[in-house]
Amino acid sequence: MFFPAEGRSGVGKYSWLVFSPQGPSLRELAMQALSSVERGYDLLAPKFDHTPFRTPDGILDATAEALRPLGPFGRGLDVCCGTGAGLRVLRPLCGEGVTGVDFSGGMLAQARRAHPDAEWVRADVRALPFTEAFDLAVSFGALGHFLPAERPALFAGVHRALRPGGLFAFPISGPQPVTSAGYWALLGFDLAMRVRNAVWRPPFVMYYRTCGLPALRDDLTASGFTVTTVPLTALGRHQDGGPRCRLVLARKAGAP
Question: Distance between CA atoms of 60 and 171, rounded to whole angstroms?
Answer without folding.
Answer: 9
